[in-house]
Design a protein that fits this description.
alpha/beta, NreC/VraR/RcsB-like_REC, transcription regulation, DNA-binding, Arc Repressor Mutant, subunit A, 2 domains, DNA binding
């Protein structure tokens, strides 16, 4: 079945451009549009999309609050949120990830990246492009731990290999890339990622990446 997508942006021209790109794909169907967060909530309830392509800055209700209400606790719908941000990265992107977004994409990304991002998010994976993640972390480096602080107790519940996997997830690596880096199978990586999420009480890879940086386990600029 086609991936059902809801477009949420306060600029009609952008929505039209996204629609043209996505409707050219056989496995993607644009089921609706919204110009602000409140409209997005109504459309999600009415249309049950698989992926919501969500702008951040909008009138009435911004994308962060809309994301929180779409993906927050107690929500059992299928919708995943892919956040749209400008080239210099919106200051609310981190909040959107905390709120439950499955990743973020630059508004000026090539058409093929937009299509691939929607497919990745619809499949339940996180969209964490390393180059975009790096710019985001550089922007917020002053607000992240220096690495001198003690790590949270929860990290001590992870095995050494699980810590390695968490660090690579935070760098934006896919399961296949992590498997190649650690010389293990993708199935093994999936198992480790699952254990990390369970032990740390996290929802998905995006929250794991944010946790790794906020806890000081990984520092901006570190490899």
């Amino acid at each position: 079945m086609a991936i059902r997508v809801l477009l949420v942006d306060d600029q009609p021209l952008l929505r039209t451009g996204f629609r043209m790109i996505l409707e050219a794909e056989q496995d993607i169907a644009v089921v609706g549009e919204a110009g602000d967060g409140l409209q997005a909530l109504d459309q999600v309830r009415a249309l049950q999309p698989d992926v919501v392509l969500m702008d951040i800055r909008m009138p009435r209700m911004d994308g962060v609050e809309a994301t929180r209400q779409i993906t927050g606790p107690g929500r059992d719908g299928p919708a995943k949120v892919l956040v749209l941000t400008t080239f210099d990265l919106d200051e609310y992107v981190v909040e959107a990830l905390r709120a439950g977004a499955s990743g973020f994409l630059l508004k000026d990304a090539p058409a093929n990246e937009l299509v691939q991002a929607i497919r990745v998010v619809a499949a339940g994976e996180a969209m964490l492009a390393p180059s975009v993640t790096r710019r985001l972390l550089d922007k917020y480096a002053d607000h992240l731990p220096s690495g001198d602080e003690p790590v949270p107790d929860a990290l001590n519940t992870l095995t050494d290999r699980e810590v390695e996997v968490l660090k690579l997830v935070a760098r934006g690596l896919s399961n296949a890339e992590i498997a190649a880096d650690l010389f293990v199978s993708e199935t093994t990586v999936k198992t480790h990622v699952g254990h990390v999420l369970t032990k740390l009480g996290l929802r998905d890879r995006v929250q794991a990446a944010v946790y790794a940086y906020e806890s000081g386990l990984v520092r901006p600029g570190a490899q």
